Amino acid sequence: MILRNVLFSWLMLLVEVVPGQQAARNDDVQASVEECRSIQMTLKARAQIQASGDAPSADDLTAAGHACDRLGEAIPTSDPAKIQPAAAALRAILARLGLPPASPREQLVALEEAVSGSSGKSLFYKLPDLAKRAFNAGEADKAKAYSNQLLEMASQYPKDWNYGNAIYYGNFVLGRIAVREDNLAQAGQYLLAAGATPGSPQLDSFGPNVTLAKELIEKGQSDVVLRYFALCKHFWKMDGGKLDEWSATVRKGGIPDFASNLHY
Question: pTM of whole model > 0.85?
Answer without folding.
Answer: no
